[in-house]
Amino acid sequence: MMSLDIVKPLHLPGDFSYGVYVVGWPVQNTFANLFPKSGIHTNQIMTFACAFSLAVISWFLIESRVCARRRFRIICDEEK
Length: 80
Known about the structure:
Elements: H1 17-34, H2 40-68, H3 73-79
Helix pairs in contact: 1-2
């Protein structure tokens, strides 16, 4: 499907996947404990919105600055 001209990959201005991975589980457990009667879909939507927001903040405030340093540039470039 990626070879079709209609389907274009989404290019975001950063690499947020690691941030979502790191904060996703704690955020999901926090929501599950704070809102025990909410359904699984509500929990997933709230978790994704919050985890993605925190990942974006983490990328722009911390990770991008670390990747900009010369000695870490090789590690950050290998991930892409």
